[in-house]
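Shipment paperwork, digital attachment
Item: protein structure file
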Amino acid sequence: MKHLFFFMMCFVSPFYHWGQNLVKFVPLQTSEPPLTPTYFYIEKVSDIRNNSSRIGHAYGIDNALLQLKPSYSLSKYSRSFFRNPIRRDTLDYAITIHIKNLDIQEKIKDNMIHGECGIELVFSFDRAGTDVVLTSFKSKTLFKRSLGEYDNYQKMIEKLFRRGAEHLNQWMSLNYDKNPILARSLVINILPDYQIDHPDKGDTLFWSTARPLRWSDFHGKPPVFTPYAAQVFSNFEYIGEVKFHKGVLTANLQFKAYILKSSSWNARAGNSESALDHEQLHFDITKTIIEKFKEKARQITSVEDYDSEIQLLFIDMYRLMNKLQKKYDAETNHSINIIDQERWRMEVRNELRGHGI
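Attachment content:
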């Protein structure tokens, strides 16, 4: 009979033992109406805290240390701060809330209880299987109270969660259709080559079928001692411009193959047509590199890494250009080997035709 009476006392007590600590349940509630999400809806909530069953510790009657536990899951509770629309726009973002921290800690000092309630939330969305972090919210509330029982924890928790919800709503309002981090997909758009219709521009001559090289373009002073009759220095670059609209990130790429007249020289070639054709083919090889670059760039689909992929591709293409230019000179012996010169001419011309040039 004594054992039965002891059991009944434990059952009706507001606290119960959990291991070595008493447990106090904190009722969770929302007193204000939920927010209407702007350009998003809450798809799921992930409680990633080390111990999702507790929310800290506090002191109760007779300064007994209590484990604080929520009355129901924080995942369910955090959803209550947003009103999910019945009809969702296809452009709205499916947001995941990650509860990284919610912790209440108290300590006794100078016959008073000093407490801190802290929260950390991370907001993300799924992009092709990758969890993309958009923004985070971190805040805390400090409080001081007298010794004894305390029942205001639920109000502090509600305020912190509501601030987090308001932070997300405001962030989405400010960044929607503006911040590329919200991109769902990538489009690589290749623009017509720079100055393709007006290739002659001062000291620079841009590659164009309408404007082949002329001996009058060779303005540079040749080296005092050189085994070569003439030399042209062709190069290429790209210009990138990024635009973001309705979840699509568009990278506009524009290429330019060019020579600098002041760096190109004619030592002994005179007006030799074959020598000029050899130099023109150096220029054409640079143009084929640009077309290879375009083909590979169009295959880039990663929103996260597109910029670094393009830059790495540029380095690879630049190395390939230098390799081919050296190989061309070696195999043709700088145009002296007529058979190989013609072979290279046909190969380069066919490649350009293959690109519709």
